[in-house]
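FAQ: What does the model actually see?

It sees only this:
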Amino acid sequence: MKKVLLDKIASVTATCRLAREVRLGTEIPALEGGVVVVRVLNSKGTYNQLELPSGRLSVVKPGDVIAGALGHRKALFGYSGYLPDEIRVGDRLHILNTGGVIGICDGVNPDLGEPFVGEVLGQVLHFPYLGERIGLPAHIAQGAIPLEDALEVHGAPVVAVVGSCMNAGKTLAACSLIQAFVRRGLQVAAGKATGVSLRRDILAMEDAGARHTHIFTDLGVVTTTPAVAPRAARTLLTHLASASPDVIVMELGDGLLGPYGVDAIFSDGALRATFKATVVSANDPVAAWGAVRLLEERYGLIPTAVTGPATDNIAGRRLVEKETGVPAFNARTQAGGLAGRVCAALSPDGADDA
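And it is asked to produce this:
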């Protein structure tokens, strides 16, 4: 056991509330969510920042000693990586995302360059027994909200924002809706149920006016999978609903066909029943058509609206509406129209309550 002073603490470890000085052990369980410390060995000119627990971004430099969490990532437009079977002090792992997820990179996006390489210094220990120097491996489940199977939204309508893939404008659409709802006098809760740990999106939702927010990382989950995503969504919705909001906006990170469990959430009939409105964000008209058709054919769900880059101008909106039969609104330029359409879907009589 040795003491180490951290230069940076990744946001993925926020539930652990780490101090700058931590104690490290040499035995490292290869467990998703385990908190480890690495020393950065290389420099990068792009994708070179780490999100801190506060949400602030800090540029990573060679020699930085960083606490992150073990995990995997399968990003369409980012790094792909996995958790190795064994980890030892001195091994070299990669920082897979801005949130501080650490694993072995097996796929590089050429726009981002090679990932940061970190030399493993050890396993962060925590000391749960008062007065005893017994250190246990730290895990982001510490201080996390326990995963539950129960689902109770107390009548609060849920607006699900789903995308054709990552970087399709889901968070922008969610924030646009939140701001429009707040301006209508509604109390809004918001969350993100799937993806890879990064607090940026729910912080943006708070900036838009959401009073209560949660992300799956708050449940001790680094990266969602089809196995865990439904329970994560149920737990998040139950906790968000406990604040008695007028509406809950839930972003489903990644895409309908991605590996993070969005499909598993829509396959859950109880969860699907809470979605009183579903907004599809798509990069282009073909993606919009495919997403709408998939939701209809696979889940019997007709989306409330389509948004995203596919709706950036009138030509795109007209094409989307013609081919899908679903109203299209641009979240940046037609926020009021998008919110009005969603409010009409939430209203018992189908009227916009503006």
